[in-house]
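User: Can you help me understand a structure? I only have the sequence.
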Amino acid sequence: MSKQDSENKVATSVVVSDRLQQQVKQVRKSAISVAVRMIFILLVIAGAILLLQYRPDLPPYLQNVVSAISALLIIVICIWGNFYRFIRYVRESITELKKVVWPEKSYAVRMTGFVLVFVTILAVFIYGVDTVVSWVLFDLLMR
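Assistant: Let's start by predicting it. Here is the structure, written out as tokens:
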């Protein structure tokens, strides 16, 4: 093996090691972020439970308001920091919906009618078979 080959292997292993360290840092950062979010979520839940538990004299509408605000806070905490991904998802969804080829109204109405007729025929068939089977089982066999 030449000296240049061994230098290339060392350089490659250093690059791989750097990438691995970056990935480990990203995973740690993500795990810490999730842990902090979970702590905040648990604090919101505990606060709502304590408020509702130790203040039973609150009117029902205020209890509902506390529950709704707690749920809203939990949702905000869950998506905090992921707004960019959420906005990107919405934009990509809108882009994909623009690519959809919608059928003409007459075709849609005709196919809807076809489906309704087919479902009606199938329902009548199943009703008929059920009636015949129940007649055979209960009236003829269990006399």
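Now, to help you interpret it: DSSP finds four helices and no strands in the chain. The chain has a mean pLDDT of 83. Let me know which part you'd like to focus on.
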